[in-house]
């Protein structure tokens, strides 16, 4: 079997995709605004987390990105807040003047 055909057969996508109930779409921003997207993950084996950050301009074009290691942070709400704080610091480092920050953690928003 040729390598490309073998790869395609191994990575074949299912023909029927179930609709996602959490489909998210890019919301066009006003001119000059920058939107941050941050996400975080926790280690089950250790007490640390990591956060990833992406900054996009009003057209959705990538401006900057970063990741950060948070040692001794095993609380998901705290990890989310630290990732958002890192996104704000990144925006300040590259002189973003108008930043849109959205937090998708229900628990963090309530507190």
From TrEMBL:
Domain RNase H type-1, chain residue ranges per copy: 37-109
Pfam families: RVT_3 (PF13456)
GO molecular-function term, one example from the UniProt record: RNA-DNA hybrid ribonuclease activity
InterPro entries the UniProt entry points to: RNase_H-like_EbsB-rel (IPR052929), RNaseH_domain (IPR002156)
UniProt-recorded name of the protein: RNase H type-1 domain-containing protein
Source organism (scientific name): Aegilops tauschii subsp. strangulata (Goatgrass)
